[in-house]
Amino acid sequence: MKNSDALSKLISDAPEFEAGHVWLAGAGPGDPRLLTIDAVAALGEADCVVHDSLVSKGVLELANPKAELVHAGKRGGKPSAEQADIIGTLIEKAGQGRKVLRLKGGDPYVFGRGGEEVFALAKAGIPFRVIPGITSGLAALSAVHVPATMRGINQAFVFVTGHGAETSDAFDWQALAKLGQPIILYMAIKNIRAIARHLLDGGMNPGIPVAAISEATTPEQKICVATLSTIEAALEKSDIKPPAIVVVGEIVTARAKLLKLIPEIPGAAK
Ligand SMILES: C[S@@+](CC[C@H](N)C(=O)[O-])C[C@H]1O[C@@H](n2cnc3c(N)ncnc32)[C@H](O)[C@@H]1O
Question: For residue 217, is it within any domain?
């Protein structure tokens, strides 16, 4: 079977999207080519797509042209759609017998409030399904040649939200600093000063490398590399803006080493 026929078969053999059901799907980090086959199939079947701001235009273009697109996003200084309103919309549309696709950037269960949404659906007696997506914390690193794990460097990595970092009592940043493993931060740009301060106070080496990657996997992807003590100033000078992933750890050094080798390889992707 040709590759394209096998792909079409996988899409057409996807589980049936029934009326009155809600599917929560991860839309991945931005590049529509990083969608799962199940997410593509769901986009073709759904008659209502409730999506976040981080879901890219290229992904939404795969929606059934007859589907209603509902923007439930929170970006650009505009008032946020309240979580309760989003849940209300899902329940209402499912109650109308629609096939509702709740599309979230990255993976629906990683810093995306997907957990709250499925609990609300379950309590309302609405059948749901969850389709995993590639989380931006991993995609951003791969997209810039920072291996999330590297033998001899790390045995773990930690995903952390930078949201709320200005109040250190909510989370033990210093314990995290002492782990000595890479830290992959979501929503960290606004609070980078507080985050760096907490990690330095926890005894982390000021010279540890840090990379911030914005709009990873899209044509607008940018990267800024600095150290824990210089990242705040480096970000101020850079054009990095949210959405961005910040990674703190020795794994960042692999990138520079690889970039030195890549130009020597004819035809290698940069
Ligand atoms: C509300 S969280 C949602 C995370 C998402 N569920 C995931 O798994 O990637 C939003 C944050 O994800 C990160 N993010 C999402 N897409 C990104 C991208 N393409 N490049 C860099 N960071 C991204 C940013 O830290 C952004 O502030």
Answer: yes
